[in-house]
Amino acid sequence: MQAKDRLSRRGFVGGVATAIGYLGLEPASNAWGLDLRTATSARPRQQGNEYDGLAKLGNNENPYGPSEAMLEAMNRAWKYSNRYGYPDGDITQKIADHHGVDPDHVLLGAGSGEILEVVGLALLGGGKAVVGVEPTYSTVYRTATSIKGDAIAVPLLDDYRQDIPAMIETTRRNYRDVGFVYMCNPNNPTGRVVSAQEIRQLIDGIPEDIPVLVDEAYHHYVQDPAYATSLPYVLEGRNVIIARTFSKIYGMAGMRLGYAIAPPALIRRLEPYSTGTINALVKWGGVAALEDKASELRVRDDAIQLRTRTTQKLESMGYDVIPSETNFFMVSIGRQVQPVIAEFRKKGVIVGRPFPPMLEHLRVSVGTAAEMDRFMTAFTEIFPVANASNGGRSG
Question: Tell me, which fold does domain 24-65+294-394 have in CATH?
Answer without folding.
Answer: Aspartate Aminotransferase, domain 1 (3.90.1150)
